[in-house]
Amino acid sequence: MSIDEIFAERLLNMILDEVDDMIVINDPEGNVIWMNRAAQRGLKINIENAVGSKCYRLFGATCCCDKCIANHTMGGPHHCGCKFKCKNTNGEHECEPIPYFKDGKLKIVVQHIRLIDNNE
User: Fold this and answer.
1) Which of 4, 14, 60 is nearest to 37 (CA)?
2) What's the CATH class of domain 3-116?
3) For residue 6, which phi and psi values (nearest 5 degrees)?
4) Hey, how many other C-beta atoms are within 10 angstroms of the C-beta on 14?
5) Which helix (H) or strand (E) holds 37?
6) DSSP characters for 60-95?
7) Which helix (H) or strand (E) holds 1?
8) pLDDT digit string (tens) for 18-73?
9) 43-70 b/e with 16+ CB inside 10 Å = b?
């Protein structure tokens, strides 16, 4: 990895750690590979305990949502409309998965998870 790539990765991590919404990045099989500080606080789990676990388990589910982009083979930014209550948090959340494809294959899924007002 070049110095520019290391700098870019650290800069991106620093920026994403400052976002108030939860960001969880997982591989195509749904294994967590990274999460921001908001996700650690919101889900009340340490990153070391989350890495390698299935993303849906973080939210108290027993299986992946059938609408999740990780279940699709192609696509762009995708609003699956998944709404759920996390076992570790109060309120209802909405997930917007954003896939990253390289060479025609799904490489990672960035999940943008935000708390939604139940009165909406």
Assistant:
1) 14
2) alpha beta
3) -65, -45
4) 9
5) helix 37-43
6) T-SS--TT-GGG-SS-SS----EEEE-TTSSSEEEE
7) none
8) 899 999 999 988 899 999 999 998 888 888 999 999 888 887 777 776 666 666 54
9) bebeeeebeeebbbbbbeeeebbeebbb
**Domains in the chain: boundaries:** 3-116
Burial of 20 per CB tally in 10 Å (0-12, 13-18, 19+): exposed
Q: CB under 8 Å to 70, separation ≥6 — which residues?
A: 26, 28, 29, 30, 64, 97, 99, 106, 109
The CA distance from 88 to 43, in Å, is: 5
Q: In which residue are the tokens 């059938």 written?
A: 66
Q: Containing H/E element for 16?
A: helix 3-17
Token pair in block for residue 3:
């110095």
Instruction: Please list the residues that pair with 84 across neighbouring strands.
Output: 93
Structure tokens at 9: 């990765």
- pTM beyond 0.85: the answer is no
